[in-house]
Amino acid sequence: MLINAKRSTAAAAGAALLLTTAGIGIGAGTAVAAPRATPLATVAELSAQRVEVADQVAAAKYGTGSPIDDPAREAIVIADAEQQATALGIDPAPVAKIFRDQIEANKVVQRALYAEWDADPSLIPTTKPSLATIRVELNTIGAELVQAIAAAETSIHAPSCEGQLTAATVHARHEQSLDALHYAALLRALPSVCAD
Predict the structure, then answer these.
(1) How far is residue 146's CA from residue 95's CA, in Å, rounded to a whole number?
(2) What are the residues whose beta carbons fall under 8 Å from the beta carbon of 110, sequence distance 6 or more?
(3) In what residue span(s) does the Chorismate mutase domain sit (predicted)?
């Protein structure tokens, strides 16, 4: 990651709040076994990768005047995901919902990092990555995510989806050593995965 492991009190408090409101809960004392390589595990892992890339997005935009909220760019990302879903023979509407959540999760990380850097300028990354390069990485993850959603169609509609997704989310957190902020963002990325 491009930032120090140290998190400001405000960012930690925000992450704690998000953990309780993100839509996927892990109850106290809940034992969750590591999932096998399931389609939902792949969805969770790719979503975790995507929230980690948010650090680079924040570093690229911070101090440049580029807004965190970019409706035009967001519309392109969602439209691309819908086209890929259609090409794979799956309903694009649920995929669009999932990608809206993915985008909002990315912004959770960006906002927290902006607040942290505003509070302590010594934490601002010293190098500014290329937003164009980062978007290529996000597009690659996005294409893989649409394929993973297509592969998970049966699981997404199964009664056990929430439980499987919770296990996959916890596993992805540990596999990628996500801190509280990035775990909160991961939870924000996933509430639309399981069908209603």
Answers:
(1) 7
(2) 54, 57, 58, 61, 68
(3) 13-114
Residue 194 domain-assigned (yes or no): no
CA 189/CA 89 separation, integer angstroms: 23
Give the start-end residues of each E strand in the chain.
Answer: none
3-state secondary structure of 23: coil
28: tokens are: 């106290």
| C-beta of residue 1 within 8 angstroms of C-beta of residue 116 | no
Q: Dig out the tokens for 190 from the structure.
A: 């996933």
Structural tokens at position 185: 């963002």
Please, are residues 129 and 59 in contact by the beta-carbon 8 Å criterion?
A: yes
**pTM recorded for the entire structure:** 0.81
Each residue's pLDDT tens digit, 88-115: 999 999 999 999 999 999 999 999 999 9
Residue 106 corresponds to which amino acid? Answer: N
- CATH, residue 112: 1.20.59.10
